Amino acid sequence: MSATAESLAQAVGSRPELDRHALIREFLAILPQASVLHDPEDLRPFECDGLAAYRQRPMIVLLPETVAQVQETLRICRERGVPVVARGAGTGLSGGALPLADGVLLVMAKFARILELDPFRRIARVQPGARNLAISQAADPHGLYYAPDPSSQIACSIGGNVAENAGGVHCLKYGLTVHNVLGIKAVTIDGDLIELGGECLDSPGYDLLALMNGSEGMLAVVVEVTVKLLPRPEQTRLVMAAFDSVEAAGKAVGEIIATGTIPAGLEMLDNFAIRATEDFAHCGYPVEAAAILLCEVDGTMDEVADQLQAVGKVLADCGASEIREARDEAERLLFWKGRKMAFPAMGRMSPDYYCMDGTIPRRALPEVLKRTAELSREYQLPVANVFHAGDGNLHPLILFDANKEGELHRTEEFGARILELCVAVGGTITGEHGVGMEKINQMCVQFQPLELTQFHAVKAAFDPDTLLNPGKAVPTLNRCAEYGAMHVSGNNLPFPELERF
Amino acid sequence: MQTSLMDLIKDTAEGREADRILRSCVHCGFCLATCPTYQLLGDELDSPRGRIYLMKQMMEGHEVTARTQLHLDRCLTCRNCETTCPSGVEYGKLLDIGRHMVEERVPRSAGERWLRRILRFFLPRRYLFTPSLRLGQVFRPLLPGALRAKVPPRQHAGVWPVATHQRQVLILDGCVQSGFTPNTNAAAARVLDRLGITVRREPAEQCCGALSFHLNAQDEAKAYMRANIDAWWPHVEAGVEAIVSSASGCGVMVKDYGHVLADDPVYAEKARRISALTRDLGEYLAAQDYAGLRVDGEQRVAFHPPCTLQHGQKLHGVVEGVLRQVGFQLTPVPDAHLCCGSAGTYSITQPELSQRLLAQKLDALQSGRPGVIATANIGCQLHLLSKAGVAVVHWIELLDRHAVAVGTPARERQAA
User: Fold this and answer.
1) Contact flag A34-B2 (C-beta cutoff 8 Å)
2) CATH code for B7-105?
3) Which of A312, A384, B253, B369 could lock onto A273 through a cystine, CB 3.0 to 4.6 A?
4) Which residues of A touch B88 (CB under 8 A)?
């Protein structure tokens, strides 16, 4: 997309001319021919990740297989001043792996092995291209699993999870990627292999391991991850509740948390999303409900019984029209399948969708959902809501048709308005998908210039020449000035009295 | 996904269908997880999403070379991605269109052209293939190892039941299957006979067309399809209740006749009727009352569901259900959703990838220490047999051999 390409080029600034052919020859000296792609025919399929509206053809795609090849590649890039974007499975939803026209796309998909799985220490040491779900599957015979479970867990890679600090339906209770990673090996732009964290919970010095989670490939390239495995709970039960209004469902979410119960997952789907997923997954969702909540509780038998009772009472008090507990494990997985396939299932309703990722205080749920519906009418674009209600992490999906002139532009503007609404009610612009390219302008709304300057200083400490995924995640002050001029005049945020976090 | 197909493509029936399918893809990447070639190669270009993009750019007018052709050739057409895809992208249909377009734009080397021509000429013609196979089977001990693995010893069909019941079905004889494993259909006839159903055959039947279709000779495939419709039509008019296929690779093709010949002014309606009548043997049996069939003793079986069965015909778990119901003990098979690497002529055109998938599949199948491996498609059966340490059979042969018939249909058989 030319608009994105332009804005990205602007963010990165111009780089000196370089001899592309000489560079390709250098890469061919360290990588097999099939792992160095440089013809437009081969490059175009890499021009976007899970956010297909943002596209940019990379200069070169590399598919290394060994850590030594990654080190050598980065050394060459540093020496030649070539920017590098790392990519895992390409399932990201914020354009974090959007390539650069004059850059190398470093694809880590061949690093797909699970190197070690120790059921006694409850850890797994995996390569960055290993699929999230593959880790849980490998741990399963030992009664263990890896907790963060983004909806794309069937395909997304653990390296990408670290880069975006991915969450999932169970992060309400078990935390994000950052809370489940014990150690990381990464290669710096100088080609040095560094090790952060380890196999224990704390390490001396600054917590650089935490810094690496969610750093969106801007500090180093992850080449190995040690993750924590959890024992599967003794019992897991899932309750589905149907509501006649979205607001009532939103209110029930806050009430459940207020009882002191922390569900393993607390998800919400609105009617639009219910119908799309039911069409694919046939999971028995009530298609006439305005919204459903999926509430999972886990723990020992006693804990689960107590929590089920508490949750059931709240749901009934909040006016649920139907409360149904999954009969057995098969039905529980079926209920989740619908939720996890909800985004792409939208492809059945609309040729394109745009997934937002704002997070708000739970108490603001009913208001924000109502306001989103109003915006939907204003922009004449349908919105489906599928999200992690328990932690206030919204995922409004704006449905549009990219083949229609101007619809993408309208969609982006609509999306921006939703995110700014999130900030206005005291929330944030991202819950788990990362900022990437998609939400870079909203970073200007979220943070003040001084804060952004500090972010740039952190990056410079790792990557002084700004070669690792430049232009993503943290906007330049110039960019913010321009965006501010367009949208938030004089940087006067709406609701300035609200506390930001 | 946004598309801007070239006008000269967009204005054709193929182009409109391709555009519709491309637009249903949202580029989420879920399909990468279950694609056998992506798992082996780790290259987006060897994944369904990458191939969709390669086809899209060709249709949008960008240059296309042998590189795109290579990545499309490497696709097994297992359609595992379709099972995984939440957006309902009809990848198999898109691939057929895409491959056809690449074939028109990128010339193949003389060697590749000849290999494909020979496969298309030789395999579907029973009068050429079966005698050659018999010759090979006679001289089997003298054949070099690689070839010997592809030529199993001769199999005999056993007795075909003579009883005539009121309920009748037509069975597809298949081209290669009738030479290699004639007992499969004979076993099917014996089992169905026990249920009071007569199995008819049609001598004028030809190859179902799948082989030509997937080697990009779609017109040749359509000629086979029309010939078959003509050959089968008298049976349809005589009132057979189903056209049964014991090879899921043929069954998935015949079920698609209606779609492939949809624009044929003469055959469209008949093709739709034929497709609607077609059932996989497992699908057909599962709908019958087979409670009278029980297995004696403990039989440990590893079942390999062919891709054309579980992904192509979307009959996941149906045969497994029948086998369990009659009392076979199915051993656990990890990654049962993955292709064995046979994939029609793939084992010949892409031997390296095919052999890697075969090794993986046999490890998975044998991990539960089965006494026998069963499958539901001739291609998979032969491919597995070439390297397996245990017998590989069609599942209906197990039923025929081990199931003890009790109840009315059996008495009816004795009376006849």
Assistant:
1) no
2) 1.10.1060.10
3) A384
4) 280, 347-348
